[in-house]
Amino acid sequence: MEPHGEIISLEEAIARALKYNLEQRVRLLEQSLAAGELEAGKYDMLPKLMANAGYSWRDNYGSRYSAPYDNPTDYTEGDFSDVDISSEKAHETADLVLSWNLLDFGASYYTAKQNADKLLIANEKRRKAMHTLMQNVRTAYWRALAAEQLSERVGQTIQSAEKALGDSVKLANERVRAPDESLRYQRNLLENLRLLESVERELASARIELANLIGLLPGTRFKLQEPAAHAAPLAIDIEQLEARALLQNADLREQFFNARIAAQDTRKALLKLLPGISFEYGGYYDNDRYLIDEQWRAAGVKVSYNLFNLISAPSRMDAAERQETLAEARRMALQMSVLTQVHLARHQYNDSLRQFGRADQIYKVDARLEEIVRGRFQSNMVGEQARISANVTTILSELRRYQAMAKVQESLGRLQASIGLEPQLNSLDSTSLQELQTRIRGWLEQDMSALVTVAQADVPQPAAQ
Fold it and tell me: Which are the contacts of 87, defined by CB distance < 8 A and separation ≥ 6?
């Protein structure tokens, strides 16, 4: 793992997550395993080349009665003068036989095609995991950034509120103020402390979650850099998003490949109904001294058929067709679900963008009000409680602003995942962290509509069967 600097940017956090996150590594290993199964499955289509060697022994000679050809009944059982020895008691054998069964070849052929689709399914699962990981990193980054920006201020404000609360209790005990006035003052301080402590609890886990996502140990020290907000209203027709989703959504493509695997199962079921045809050719050796030729070659063709297949054929075909129909129905249902996801994600993104704009306006207003109250406090025009309340209000507004931006990034990631949009990356193992970071930075800075247009220009299609 490459060491990190003092400051980690958003693109570096995403790059580190893609390269070092353990769950992402598991998906890459699953894809590698599927590729290995595909490569190994190809050898099942080759003929079988069997080499055998053995030793045979018996306690007496292999012998049989003999009779003249023109009178085959002319022999006397028990008369050993008419007995011929046909084999030795012990002899060695060896053979090398090449055999090829057409049914086995056909089944292996369809299995190899299914393994190819399983490799594509593993790739789609990796893409889906990458979409989810990037979405989680973007959300956790903004939450951790809020924790970094606000933690110190929250701690200082909690100390000030607790000190003011202690002073108020002391004055109330000395009856310097009226009891009801002191209690109202204390309640306001306690309410502010409750809000600040809830903020502190929410911020405490943000950095730990981010460190886990990007492959760093909990407690690792690093700082975050606030990225420029590139989120903007979408200038893309919903029809374009729907078309992109139907072509590139990871879940939908995975279901498409599952449907192809079910279709191959139907073909394999049909194949089992055919008679088995096998070819054999081999060389044989036997050192039995009663054989005229110790070495010979032989070839043969054999046709076999299990008659019980005629009984089981209808049920096998029905089961295979039902499985294929089920896979197709799942794909159609998933298509409708994906289109719904696209519409919901687009609506949530636009809504979260409006909420962020509103939260940003409220934060700016509260920040100006805090400056005014701070100036009045320094002029002794307002008390400590007013200053603390204004500070708490500003902290909450800033926290909501960061939370709103985290929602924007989350909804944007969900929209990109639903339409199957991700940065074009090479092998993560062979790509350096710096190069990966540069590609992700360019992808994050590019406009969403431009990304969709570029992606639609050359969309890889599932291979036709």
Answer: 61, 62, 288, 290
